[in-house]
Amino acid sequence: MKQKALFYSGRVEVVEYPVVPVHENILVKPMYVYIGDLERGIVNGVVPLAKPTILGSVGIVKVIEVFDGPTEYTGKVYSVTPLGDKGILGVDFHGLLSSYASLSSSYLDEELIQYTPFDSLKPIVKHVSEVASLSEEPVLIEGCGLIGVATGLMLRKIGVEPVFYCEEGLRRALMFDFQVYKHTGSLSSRWRTLVLTSTNAFSKYTLLSTTEVHHVIVTPLSLTRWIPIPSGRKGSIKVTFLWKSNNYNAEHVKSVLRELEKVIKVIDVQDVEKTIGLIPPRGLGTVISLKS
């Protein structure tokens, strides 16, 4: 069983092995892989990597074999979350853009009986559902990538209309008729909630140094390790780091997925090698079908 994998090691390249290297106890066959903000950040040099990694953070897989532990996963189809016990998939640990992948069970998000390619995005939309539930008006979202836009759509479901601050990719939020600003001088100086979603470190520093916020919510998919809170306000700002979550509204998740389907393409590829031309992804990203 040969293996091809899409590596990033300073450049995007395909590495071929005579056999499948196994790093974890569950062997899976990737069926759909979503590429977006993380992959764009990696190849653009914004996201630092400790070592070369296989790209692809979220998707849908079929479990081929379980080498150690419970075997009830075998033969079933699961959505895959980027947030597991080894860190972020495709950043801290090998991702899904390969012929086969080995995963810890902590990355298997939900068993899928009936599914579409867009269920690849379900773990992300479930994650932002909790972000939205913790937000109080007025809400400022930093970043116009999928995490930011999905958070904005989820907030709308609960009757909250956020404002966006984006230093790049404004059109991704403007497509959904959100109010978007590129310069802090146009923003209100006071916000109840600031949601950090982009991988742009300077953007976070700019906002926290020019606005007054009470609650900062940080998604780990923004790869934020440090919050530049002004020294005079450290005791007055609440900071919430969210990891994996089971607190979500299922109907709202379905509704947001339907909206994202309108702007995210599904592209069929015959071979992992053919995905090279799709990276870095454009817009809100792409779902790659590896089923053929």
Output the keywords.
292 residues, 20% helix, seven-stranded mixed sheet, 18 strands, alpha/beta, six-stranded parallel sheet
Quick synopsis:
This protein has six helices and 18 strands.
Describe the structure.
The chain has 292 residues and is of the alpha/beta class. Helices cover 20% and strands 29% of the residues. The chain contains six helices and 18 strands. The protein has helices at 37-43, 122-134, 146-157, 170-174, 201-210, 250-261, and strands at residues 3-8, 12-17, 26-35, 53-54, 58-66, 77-80, 83-84, 87-88, 101-103, 108-111, 139-142, 163-165, 179-181, 190-196, 212-218, 238-241, 265-268, 286-289. Helix 3 (146-157) links the parallel strand 11 and strand 12 (163-165). The longest helix is centred in the middle third of the chain and has 13 residues, at 122-134. The chain starts with a strand and ends with a strand. The mean pLDDT is 91.
Number of strand segments:
18
Sheet with the most strands, sense and barrel status: 7 strands, mixed
Report the uncertain regions: none
Q: Give the DSSP E fraction (strand runs of 2 or more residues).
A: 25-35%
Rg calc: 19 Å
- The arrangement of helices and strands along the chain is EEEHEEEEEEEHEHEHEEHEEHEE
Shape verdict: globular
What is the helix fraction of residues, given as a range?
10-25%
Structural class: alpha/beta
Quote the average pLDDT.
91
The number of helices is 6
Distance between the termini: 16 Å
